[in-house]
Amino acid sequence: MRRAALLLAATLALAAPAFAVEPDEVLDDPALEARARDISAGLRCPVCRNESIDESNAGVSRDLRLYVRERLLAGDSDAQVMRAVVDRYGEYVLLRPDASGANLILWLAAPGLLIVAGGVAFVSIRRRASGPEDRLSEEEEAKLRDILKP
Protein backbone atom coordinates (compact mmCIF):
# COMPACT_ATOMS: atom_id res chain seq x y z
CA MET A 1 0.00 0.00 0.00
CA ARG A 2 2.85 2.31 0.87
CA ARG A 3 4.57 1.58 -2.44
CA ALA A 4 1.40 2.36 -4.33
CA ALA A 5 1.12 5.72 -2.56
CA LEU A 6 4.75 6.55 -3.34
CA LEU A 7 4.30 5.51 -6.96
CA LEU A 8 1.19 7.67 -7.24
CA ALA A 9 2.99 10.65 -5.68
CA ALA A 10 5.93 10.23 -8.06
CA THR A 11 3.59 10.01 -11.05
CA LEU A 12 1.74 13.15 -10.01
CA ALA A 13 5.01 15.00 -9.45
CA LEU A 14 6.14 14.09 -12.95
CA ALA A 15 2.79 15.13 -14.41
CA ALA A 16 3.08 18.64 -12.96
CA PRO A 17 3.90 21.33 -15.51
CA ALA A 18 7.61 21.62 -16.08
CA PHE A 19 9.03 25.10 -15.96
CA ALA A 20 11.68 25.94 -18.49
CA VAL A 21 13.45 28.50 -16.32
CA GLU A 22 17.09 27.50 -16.23
CA PRO A 23 19.25 27.87 -13.11
CA ASP A 24 21.41 30.58 -14.66
CA GLU A 25 18.28 32.72 -15.19
CA VAL A 26 17.14 32.69 -11.55
CA LEU A 27 17.67 35.96 -9.70
CA ASP A 28 19.44 36.01 -6.33
CA ASP A 29 16.69 38.13 -4.74
CA PRO A 30 13.70 35.84 -4.01
CA ALA A 31 11.25 38.78 -4.13
CA LEU A 32 12.45 39.84 -7.59
CA GLU A 33 12.41 36.24 -8.77
CA ALA A 34 8.81 35.85 -7.58
CA ARG A 35 7.86 39.03 -9.47
CA ALA A 36 9.65 37.74 -12.57
CA ARG A 37 7.75 34.44 -12.36
CA ASP A 38 4.42 36.26 -11.99
CA ILE A 39 5.15 38.41 -15.03
CA SER A 40 6.43 35.42 -17.04
CA ALA A 41 3.28 33.45 -16.29
CA GLY A 42 1.22 36.15 -18.03
CA LEU A 43 3.35 36.34 -21.17
CA ARG A 44 2.81 34.08 -24.18
CA CYS A 45 5.71 32.55 -26.04
CA PRO A 46 5.72 34.09 -29.54
CA VAL A 47 6.68 30.70 -31.02
CA CYS A 48 4.51 28.31 -28.97
CA ARG A 49 0.74 28.50 -28.86
CA ASN A 50 -0.86 29.24 -25.49
CA GLU A 51 2.24 28.43 -23.53
CA SER A 52 3.74 30.98 -21.17
CA ILE A 53 7.38 31.94 -21.50
CA ASP A 54 7.86 30.38 -18.07
CA GLU A 55 6.90 26.96 -19.48
CA SER A 56 8.41 27.22 -22.96
CA ASN A 57 11.83 25.93 -23.97
CA ALA A 58 11.96 28.09 -27.11
CA GLY A 59 14.94 30.37 -27.50
CA VAL A 60 12.78 33.48 -27.79
CA SER A 61 11.12 32.57 -24.47
CA ARG A 62 14.50 32.38 -22.80
CA ASP A 63 15.35 35.80 -24.25
CA LEU A 64 12.05 37.18 -22.95
CA ARG A 65 12.62 35.71 -19.47
CA LEU A 66 16.08 37.30 -19.38
CA TYR A 67 14.64 40.60 -20.63
CA VAL A 68 11.97 40.59 -17.89
CA ARG A 69 14.61 39.94 -15.22
CA GLU A 70 16.87 42.62 -16.71
CA ARG A 71 14.05 45.20 -16.54
CA LEU A 72 13.26 44.21 -12.94
CA LEU A 73 16.91 44.60 -11.96
CA ALA A 74 16.86 48.03 -13.60
CA GLY A 75 14.10 49.01 -11.16
CA ASP A 76 11.04 48.87 -13.42
CA SER A 77 7.65 48.14 -11.90
CA ASP A 78 5.66 45.11 -13.07
CA ALA A 79 3.46 47.36 -15.22
CA GLN A 80 6.49 49.01 -16.82
CA VAL A 81 7.99 45.61 -17.63
CA MET A 82 4.73 44.41 -19.21
CA ARG A 83 4.46 47.65 -21.20
CA ALA A 84 8.05 47.29 -22.45
CA VAL A 85 7.45 43.69 -23.55
CA VAL A 86 4.16 44.62 -25.29
CA ASP A 87 5.88 47.54 -27.02
CA ARG A 88 8.56 45.20 -28.28
CA TYR A 89 6.41 42.16 -29.28
CA GLY A 90 2.84 43.49 -29.55
CA GLU A 91 -0.32 42.52 -27.69
CA TYR A 92 -0.12 38.96 -29.01
CA VAL A 93 2.43 38.24 -26.29
CA LEU A 94 -0.19 38.71 -23.54
CA LEU A 95 -1.92 35.51 -22.42
CA ARG A 96 -4.82 37.60 -21.07
CA PRO A 97 -5.19 40.71 -23.28
CA ASP A 98 -7.06 43.75 -21.97
CA ALA A 99 -10.74 44.08 -22.80
CA SER A 100 -10.41 47.62 -24.15
CA GLY A 101 -10.08 49.42 -27.48
CA ALA A 102 -10.02 47.15 -30.51
CA ASN A 103 -9.86 44.10 -28.23
CA LEU A 104 -13.29 45.03 -26.88
CA ILE A 105 -14.76 44.19 -30.28
CA LEU A 106 -13.22 40.72 -30.09
CA TRP A 107 -14.40 40.21 -26.51
CA LEU A 108 -17.98 41.20 -27.39
CA ALA A 109 -18.22 39.61 -30.86
CA ALA A 110 -18.77 36.02 -29.69
CA PRO A 111 -21.55 36.77 -27.18
CA GLY A 112 -23.11 39.19 -29.68
CA LEU A 113 -23.13 36.60 -32.45
CA LEU A 114 -24.56 34.02 -30.05
CA ILE A 115 -27.45 36.37 -29.20
CA VAL A 116 -28.10 37.10 -32.90
CA ALA A 117 -28.03 33.37 -33.76
CA GLY A 118 -30.40 32.65 -30.88
CA GLY A 119 -32.80 35.32 -32.15
CA VAL A 120 -32.71 33.94 -35.69
CA ALA A 121 -33.34 30.41 -34.39
CA PHE A 122 -36.23 31.63 -32.21
CA VAL A 123 -37.92 33.46 -35.10
CA SER A 124 -37.40 30.49 -37.42
CA ILE A 125 -38.88 28.02 -34.93
CA ARG A 126 -41.86 30.30 -34.21
CA ARG A 127 -42.65 30.58 -37.93
CA ARG A 128 -42.58 26.81 -38.37
CA ALA A 129 -44.73 26.21 -35.30
CA SER A 130 -47.46 28.58 -36.48
CA GLY A 131 -48.25 26.22 -39.37
CA PRO A 132 -48.45 26.81 -43.08
CA GLU A 133 -49.42 30.33 -44.11
CA ASP A 134 -51.25 29.35 -47.32
CA ARG A 135 -54.47 27.43 -46.70
CA LEU A 136 -56.27 25.47 -49.41
CA SER A 137 -59.35 27.02 -50.90
CA GLU A 138 -62.64 25.15 -50.62
CA GLU A 139 -62.38 24.12 -54.27
CA GLU A 140 -58.85 22.71 -53.73
CA GLU A 141 -59.97 20.86 -50.61
CA ALA A 142 -62.83 19.26 -52.58
CA LYS A 143 -60.41 18.13 -55.31
CA LEU A 144 -58.07 16.71 -52.68
CA ARG A 145 -60.91 14.78 -51.06
CA ASP A 146 -61.87 13.35 -54.46
CA ILE A 147 -58.29 12.22 -55.08
CA LEU A 148 -57.94 10.65 -51.65
CA LYS A 149 -61.28 8.77 -51.80
CA PRO A 150 -60.85 5.01 -51.56
UniProtKB/TrEMBL annotation:
Keywords: Cytochrome c-type biogenesis, Heme, Iron, Lyase, Membrane, Metal-binding, Signal, Transmembrane, Transmembrane helix. Residues 9-148 form the CcmH/CycL/Ccl2/NrfF N-terminal domain. It holds the Pfam family CcmH. The chain crosses the membrane at residues 104-125. Residues 1-20 form the signal peptide. InterPro entries: C-type_cytochrome_biogenesis, CcmH/CycL/Ccl2/NrfF_N, CcmH/CycL/NrfF/Ccl2_sf. One of its GO terms (molecular function) is metal ion binding. One of its GO terms (cellular component) is plasma membrane. One of its GO terms (biological process) is cytochrome complex assembly. PANTHER family: CYTOCHROME C-TYPE BIOGENESIS PROTEIN CCMH (PTHR47870:SF1). Belongs to the CcmH/CycL/Ccl2/NrfF family. Possible subunit of a heme lyase. This is Cytochrome c-type biogenesis protein.
